[in-house]
Amino acid sequence: MTDELTIFKTGDIIEGFRIMSEIGRGAASIIYLVQDPKTKQIWALKHVEKTDAKAQRFLDQAEIEYKIANQINHPAIRRIEKLIKKGSLLKCKDLYLVMELVDGISMFEETPTDLTVIVDLFQQVASGLAEMHALGYVHADMKPHNVILGSDIQGNLTAKVIDLGQSCKIGTIKKRIQGTPDYIAPEQVHRREITPKTDVYNFGAMMYWVLTGKNIPTAMGTKSDSLMGSLDDALIEKATPISELRTDLPDRLSDLIMQCFEVDPNARPDMNSVSSKLDLILGIIRAPSIPVDEI
Fold first, then answer.
1. Closest Cα to residue 135, out of 165, 167, 177, 113?
2. Could you state, in order of their start, the residue ranges of all structural domains in the chain?
């Protein structure tokens, strides 16, 4: 589909922004590095274009992404400054998202090896998602690809959650299955209510992969299950305990990760609890000689 998209060149002025380079593409979108000639501010400009009737959902997702991200003020969630729609109200053909430039690489592409750094990044993400939940929304597609690693002025690694295109209000029941198979929660597969516990499951599956390089079994099943379509909750294979794959992990961390992707949402902790426990675990890792009951 991207072959049909309008492609802008370096130096072009689009909606008041000067194109500096292309930095990414999606199913119906191209993202550019741009500069505001007046303020010299650098942004990422996402151009979403309706090339056919099926592409309407990408316009809808972009509007949702803007609506939700614009309400969140948290350092771990990418900020979207502005939405520009082209065409009439009923015949919008394309739109632009003026987004915070996130300069870095995804956690999927480059995973840190230092456990202290990893847990710190996990805690940043959990804190951002907890803020999102407090505002009434669910990300609904947490995975390593959607966490960009950057650095602060002190040189410490930072995490930034991106791609809120599948985000929704708490309690939404989607018309079709949305999510990434290796991280998808059972309620997403069976089109039940999407809740903050859905993000907890996705996030737990993400933490498991980051620390082991392996994916947990999900309700999507395996390739051999393709004829079945999806698996009932009772048939989902249990993941190998992470403590068996990483014997160096603190028990508190291993237990927390396994709890996050319990099949029953009621058995999962909420994201505030996940964030708090990760903060505690981080303190234990940094100062292992201090008794746990003194932290």
1. 167
2. 2-99, 105-294
- With both helix axes pointing from N to C terminus, report the angle between 271-286 and 115-134 in degrees, rounded to the nearest 10: 160
Write the CA distances from 276 to 52, 122, 125, integer angstroms.
46, 11, 12
Q: What is the pLDDT of residue 93?
A: 84
Residue whose C-alpha is closest to residue 97's, from 12, 9, 26: 26
Low-confidence ranges of the chain (pLDDT < 70): 1-3, 88-90, 222-229, 288-295
Q: Which residue has the tokens 């939940």?
A: 133
Closest CA to 7 of 25, 16, 17, 15: 25
CB atoms within 10 A of CB 91: 8
Homologous superfamily, domain 2-99: Phosphorylase Kinase; domain 1 (3.30.200.20)
pTM: 0.89
- Of 30, 168, 35, the closest CA to residue 94 belongs to 30
Q: By C-alpha distance, which of 63, 7, 54, 58 is closest to 28?
A: 58
Q: For the segment 118-151, what is each residue's pLDDT rounded down to a tens digit?
A: 999 999 999 999 999 999 999 999 999 999 999 8
Class of domain 105-294: mainly alpha
